[in-house]
Amino acid sequence: MATKHEQIIRHIDSLPVGEKISVRQIAKELNVSEGTAYRAIKDAENKGYVSTIERVGTIRIERKKKENIEKLTYVEVVNIIDGQVLGGKAGLYKTLTKFVIGAMEMEAIKRYTGPGNLLIVGNRTEVHEFALRAGAAVLITGGFDTSEEVKQLADELKLPILSTSYDTFTVATMINRAIYDQLIKKEITLVDDILTHAEESASMSVKATVADWYAKKRETNHSRFPVLDSMNRVVGIVTGKDVIGQDESLALDKIMTRNPLTVGRNVSVASVAHMMIWEGIEMLPVVDDQKRFAGIISRQDVLKALQMIQRQPHVGETIDDTITKQFTAGEYAGRQAFDFEVTPQMTNQLGTISYGVFTTIMTEAATRVFRQQKKGELAVENLTIYYLKPAQIDSVLRIEPNILEVGRKFGKVDVEVFNGEELIGKALMMCKLIEK
């Protein structure tokens, strides 16, 4: 039976897009306390079902699919620019296709403005009216207002007209940055993208016996199963080692491993890989926000995902991508080395390479040379860095990684960084290999 929290989430999900939601209204309709309604609405906001805007309230919005994450709704624009809604609140849930900067003559604006656009413009009332009639929303910069007639028109057409205190250039930069950040998030593979869902996963009841385990093993050809209680929560893990030599009538809760490690749906695959390596785990149960069983993820799933990620082109670059693009592979004194140019973006306020960038280039060099030897996925276990001398803007550094030890499951790499012929940094990195 669903909890009150789950009932509220389902109710919110069933509401039409654009509908306004309040704590009091939900509490009254579903006969729950206002505290329960408030917590569920906040959870729905985290899940992307609703969005809250100051002086407007909470609105049911269309939940984005991952492939459309680079598109913004007007609700998100309001929150990005710290804006206020002057009119057209009923259209806040709509998605904008592109934004147009209205620093041009009216004739040019007519050519470039159309349905689904967001026109960014100053206090030009005639432009505001034209844009709305053309099917575009309006964002007024500089903290200016518009006429009551334009606000009424926005309400009639259900097209938002927004206002912000920021200037046009700042607003455009903020929206561009938000879209770019979303693109980076889109690339990150999460557990939810690769898990085997609960309905397709083998699990066992806490009331099951050792005999049931053997039957399940014959049915599925697996030996590790999450053990669930009556509320569908993961309370244990049972494996072949647990049942060996046990009486077949013995209940699983007597022999299972209690309080097992679990992982949430929105955890990155990279984090799961580390967890599996450190703990020596082959399979992890996946749980939802209510700690209920949602599926499983195996080490094989994680390896496949990591290999796939490496083959994908990057649409939105992270800081690490920007740094590693500066790498040039080569040789020095018969050993593999990498050159790296210190650009202004890589420096601190003193004009020397930042500690974070310095750490990244040393880790990247060591990882690359180690991958060539082992041909597998690595996880850094320990990194000790000695930053001896600063490197200023426009310096070209030479990074020389040297493998000291390499085994089946681990490796030790020494890294030296030179500016010209002068040694400016050293590091020692211990890493583990994710076995296939």
TrEMBL record:
- Record-linked SUPFAM superfamilies: CBS-domain pair, HprK N-terminal domain-like, Thioesterase/thiol ester dehydrase-isomerase, Winged helix' DNA-binding domain
Q: Which UniProt keywords apply?
A: CBS domain
User: Which Pfam families does the record match to this protein?
Assistant: 4HBT, CBS, DRTGG, HTH_24
The record's CDD domains line, in alphabetical order, gives: CBS_pair_DRTGG_assoc, hot_dog
> PROSITE patterns, from UniProt?
CBS
Q: Which SMART domains match?
A: CBS
Q: What residues does the CBS domain cover?
A: 195-254, 256-318
Q: Which InterPro entries match?
A: CBS_dom (IPR000644), CBS_dom_sf (IPR046342), Diverse_CBS-Domain (IPR051257), DRTGG (IPR010766), HotDog_dom_sf (IPR029069), Ser_kin/Pase_Hpr-like_N_sf (IPR028979), Thioestr_dom (IPR006683), WH-like_DNA-bd_sf (IPR036388)
Recorded protein name is CBS domain-containing protein
